[in-house]
Amino acid sequence: MEFFYYWFHRVSHRVRWFWCAHVVHHSGETMNMSTAMRQSLTYTLNASHFFWVPLILFGFEPRWVMLALAVNLAYQYFVHTEAIRRLPDWFEFVFNTPSHHRAHHGRNREYIDKNYGGILIIFDRIFGTFEPEAAPVNYGIPKPVNSYNILTLNFHEWRAMFRDARQADSWRQRLGFLFMPPQWREKPSLSAKIQSE
């Protein structure tokens, strides 16, 4: 389960289609347990539930998959805090902790796209996405939403993504705006640069 959660969470940051739903959770600029409750209304729109289908295809009963996911999410409720600084080193090495998750929620350059684990942090260590909390964390997203309106929070990134795709010059760009990382902008080709000179 944890392996699939890691990839679900990583894709939710690295593919704009999935980021559109997940960005709601990261839009808060403080870290406390209420941040854990800041969830998107649009997770079903982007088909996030398909990340758990392989577990069912491997033979796990859907109810056990859902229970494991619920336990994973319940654990994460407690890592959304500044009240706990660091836990013993052995625990910090294996598990996702408040320290690791604070870094995950940072918009500091060194913390962007790090620490995707749910209960465990070992897949971040294996796949090179682990970053310990060192510098003070600046919470939130790179381009703040500046709104508490529930509809704005849930749909601002969807609007921006579809606007970018609509204004794109090619199908390649349109697909890029949908499925590349959120900050993706296609670099002009060499021939386009030469023509503009």
From TrEMBL:
Cell compartment(s), UniProt: Endomembrane system
Entry keywords, A to Z: Lipid metabolism, Membrane, Oxidoreductase, Transmembrane, Transmembrane helix
UniProt GO BP: lipid biosynthetic process; membrane lipid metabolic process
Coiled-coil ranges per UniProt: none
Chief location bin: membrane
GO MF assignments: glyceryl-ether monooxygenase activity; iron ion binding
Domain Fatty acid hydroxylase: 1-129
Membrane topology: Multi-pass membrane protein
GO cellular component, one term: endoplasmic reticulum
PANTHER family reported in the protein's UniProt record: ALKYLGLYCEROL MONOOXYGENASE, STEROL DESATURASE-RELATED PROTEIN
Entry protein name: Fatty acid hydroxylase domain-containing protein
